[in-house]
Amino acid sequence: MTKELILGLDIGTSSVRAALYDMRGDLIPKTLVKNERTLTATHDGGAEIDAGTALIQILASVSDVLSIYQDEAAEIAYLATSSFWHSLVGVDTNGNPTTKVFGWADTRSRKYTERLEARFDESAIHDRTGARFHSSFWPAKLLWLRTEFPDVFARTARWLSFSDFVALNLFGEAATSVSMASGTGLLDLRTCSWDDKLLKFLKLRPEQLPTLPEDKQTFRLSKKFAKRWPRLKSAECFPAIADGAANNIGAGCVTRSKAALMIGTSGAMRVAYRGEPPAKIPPGLWCYRIDRKRVIMGGALSDGGGLYRWMKDNLRLGKDDDVEREIAKREPAAHGLSVMPFFAGERSTGYHENAVGSILGLRSSSDTIDIVQAALESIAYRFADIFDQLNGLTRIKNIIASGGALRESPVWTQMIADVLGRDLTLPDTREASMRGAVLLALETTGRINKIEDVPTPSGKKFSADKSRKAVYSAARKRHRETYKLLIDRET
What we know:
Elements (H helix, E strand, L loop, with lengths): L2 E9 L3 E7 L11 E4 L3 E2 L5 E3 L1 H18 L5 E10 L5 E3 L9 E2 L9 H8 L2 H8 L8 H11 L1 H6 L2 E3 L1 H10 L6 H5 L4 E2 L4 E2 L1 H7 L20 H6 L7 E2 L3 E2 H8 L7 E6 L3 E8 L11 E4 L4 E8 L3 H10 L5 H10 L8 E3 L17 E3 L7 H26 L4 E5 L1 H5 L1 H11 L3 E4 L4 H13 L14 E4 L3 H21 L5
Parallel strand pairs: 1-6, 6-12, 6-13, 14-20, 20-21
Antiparallel strand pairs: 1-2, 2-3, 4-5, 5-8, 7-9, 10-11, 14-15, 15-17, 16-17, 18-19, 21-22
């Protein structure tokens, strides 16, 4: 009997991962490959990568997996992909890139949010598309490109997410999932179609954007890639879903009572459920789609593990274990410092385009561990703001943590539990986003009944310390006051 497998692919901003899974959604041992990469940061706020270079990394990852697993009796029946949200790349009529791939952290379009705010009722747009006016989304980026690079805009035939560009190359069609489309800021969440009013303002037609196939529609590799990878020539390929949505699925958080808290380079807290978006979306949160039956809602932080790594590198802190032990010995929030964790800008909950990082309260007695501890605590406070808005919409009973930054820092994970005053579980499952894409594909094909029935993986529990919660509540209040003074000046 032929053994069927599914190839999982996770396209991240900092790496590309690929692996093989069985029909239960379990990873086949020793098939995981990982290729590191980084987006180029520019002094004017850019965060970009060359589309061709990024595509080559993906092709190499697929080839690496196929070279590792040589069981000819196994059939690779499906390809399921997760990809980073909010990217934008232009292509010409031949499918060649006309721009770099702009990532969510690219803030060069930030001044154009003011023009959008002047033209539209932002609250109404937010409730319709789930996205605020912000440089991480397409409306501001497209307005920036149309205004400042008119020649590039004119010769661009279609505007795509990077995963759509991958689909165009692999399948010959620029098809996107409603999951990826919902992260652009241009999709009407209720009709699952492109927003007419925004497109008209941006002088775009629907055919200049990727197509929106039904959730069950799959694609086959083009002749070129079927010849390159003959073991994939019969595979049914699903359009990529967003990594945040996939992460919730992989972490077993697809009901209203479970929140997924993830810290990788950036951070996010999300609740996913079967149903429709709320009529009124809280101003500090976003709302996107997993598919046409489910939505996902939450907040995202531009700074997460990336800020911790920046601190380690630039403060020359030494071994990670030594840093963790030193922080663990210290009292919570006793350093007297306030850190605004916006080194990569702000998204949730204030969405201030010009927010920057800062460290306040430094004294001659302050040391590097004080600074790092204050930075980690400040990110925990931002998560608490997201949690408060989410919990006001749906009662959250369980919080499931994931992400490489938390796995590497149990001290930080415990700190977040104490700030929230909630227990956290850090499951043993790795590669939650890739696993989530695989599980959704298996549900779509009928191989599993419902992703809601897949049990949340077991893991290490971090119990909140109530005495520390009280200390952090006072510190969080000071953090909010500093935020209003430095960032939220207009309120």
